[in-house]
C-alpha cells in the first residue's frame, strides 16, 4: 500500500488542503493520504497556534466521509521540533509493509535543501509535488529528479493565516472551510 503523507500545522485545515489531498488520492497511484498534524514545524514560529488536540479534531472532522483521507497524530509523541526525516523513520519501522511518499507544494520544494537530511529523504521516498504560487526558485539539483513527481493539481490560494486574520476581524470565512470545521471553530470561539 502506498501512503502519501501530507504534513502541516493545519491551524486550521481548509478546503485548499482538502482539494489537494483529494486530487492526490484520486489522480495519482497513492492509495491513502494521511494528514500528519505537526506539533511544531522546524521553520515556523508559533503564532496563535491552537493545541494539537484541537487541530487534530478539525482534521478528523474535515476528512470524515473520505475513505482515502486519514488524520494522523503520529508526530504528537515524537521530539519537537518535528523533523520529517525522524517521522519517516519512525513510520517505516512501525509499518514496514507500507510505502511512504511525501506530498508537498512547490513552495516547500524551494526550501527542501534546508530540511534535515533531505538527501536521505529523497533516497528512500518519493515526493509528489503540486503547483503553488510562491517566491524563489527550485534548486537545479531537484530538476528532473527521479523521485520527484509533479502532479497537476489545482492551484488553491487560501491560507490558514488569512482565515485566522479574517475571523479576528469578524469576516465570514465559511466558504473556505468544511462546514463541520467552521462549526467547531465557531462553537469553541477560536481565533477571535
Ligand atoms: N491553499 C493551499 N493550497 C495548496 N497547499 C497548501 C495551501 N495552503 C497550505 N498548503 C500547504 O499545505 C501544507 C500544510 O499547510 P499548513 O497548515 O502548514 O500551512 P498554511 O495553510 O500555509 O498555514 P499558515 O497560513 O498557518 O502558514 C503546507 O505544505 C502548505 O504549503
Ligand atoms: O524536516 C525538516 O527539516 C522540515 C523543515 C520544514 C518543514 N518541514 C515539514 O513540512 C511541513 C510544512 O512546513 P510549513 O513550515 O510550510 O508548515 C511541516 O509541517 C513539517 O512537517 C520539515
UniProtKB/TrEMBL annotation:
Record-listed E.C. numbers: 2.7.7.18
Chemical reaction(s) catalysed: nicotinate beta-D-ribonucleotide + ATP + H(+) = deamido-NAD(+) + diphosphate
One Gene Ontology MF term: nicotinate-nucleotide adenylyltransferase activity
Gene Ontology biological process: NAD+ biosynthetic process
Cytidyltransferase-like domain boundaries: 5-165
UniProt keywords, alphabetically: ATP-binding, NAD, Nucleotide-binding, Nucleotidyltransferase, Pyridine nucleotide biosynthesis, Transferase
Database matches in InterPro entries: Cyt_trans-like, NadD/NMNAT, Rossmann-like_a/b/a_fold
Pathway per the UniProt entry: Cofactor biosynthesis; NAD(+) biosynthesis; deamido-NAD(+) from nicotinate D-ribonucleotide: step 1/1
Function: Catalyzes the reversible adenylation of nicotinate mononucleotide (NaMN) to nicotinic acid adenine dinucleotide (NaAD).
Family: Belongs to the NadD family.
HAMAP family: NaMN_adenylyltr
Name of the protein in its database record: Probable nicotinate-nucleotide adenylyltransferase
Source organism (scientific name): Gelidibacter salicanalis
Encoding gene (name): nadD
Amino acid at each position: 500500500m502506498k501512503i502519501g503523507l501530507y504534513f502541516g500545522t493545519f491551524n486550521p485545515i481548509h478546503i485548499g488542503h482538502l482539494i489537494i489531498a483529494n486530487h492526490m488520492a484520486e489522480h495519482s497511484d497513492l492509495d491513502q493520504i494521511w494528514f500528519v498534524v505537526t506539533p511544531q514545524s522546524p521553520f515556523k514560529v508559533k503564532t496563535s497556534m491552537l493545541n494539537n488536540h484541537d487541530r487534530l479534531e478539525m482534521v478528523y472532522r474535515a476528512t470524515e466521509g473520505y475513505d482515502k483521507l486519514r488524520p494522523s497524530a503520529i508526530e504528537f509523541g515524537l521530539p519537537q521540533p518535528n523533523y520529517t526525516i525522524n517521522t519517516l523513520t519512525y513510520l517505516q519501522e512501525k509499518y514496514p509493509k507500507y510505502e511512504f511518499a511525501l506530498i508537498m507544494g512547490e513552495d516547500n520544494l524551494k526550501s527542501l535543501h534546508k530540511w534535515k537530511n533531505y538527501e536521505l529523504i529523497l533516497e528512500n521516498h518519493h515526493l509528489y509535488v503540486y503547483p503553488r504560487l510562491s517566491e524563489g526558485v527550485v534548486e537545479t539539483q531537484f530538476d528532473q529528479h527521479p523521485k520527484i513527481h509533479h502532479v497537476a493539481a489545482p492551484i488553491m490560494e487560501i491560507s490558514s493565516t488569512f482565515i485566522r486574520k479574517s475571523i479576528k476581524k469578524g469576516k465570514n470565512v465559511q466558504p473556505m472551510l468544511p462546514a463541520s470545521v467552521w462549526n467547531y471553530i465557531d462553537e469553541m470561539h477560536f481565533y477571535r
